[in-house]
Amino acid sequence: MMKKAIIFNIQRYSIHDGGGIRTLIFFKGCPLRCPWCSNPESQSFKPEIIRRESLCIKCSSSSCFACTNTPEQCPTGAIEKVGKEMDVNEVLKEIKKDIIFYDSTGGGVTLSGGEPLSQGEFAIELLEKLKNLGIDTAIETTGFSKWEILDKMSNHLDRILFDLKIMNKEKSIKIINADIDLIKDNFKKLVKKRINIIPRIPLIPKYTMDDENIEAIINFILSQGIKEVHILPYHQYGISKYKSLGKKYILKSLIPPSSEDVERIKEKMTDAGLYVVVGGK
Question: Going by CATH, does the domain composed of 4-52+83-278 fall within 3.20.20.70?
Answer without folding.
Answer: yes
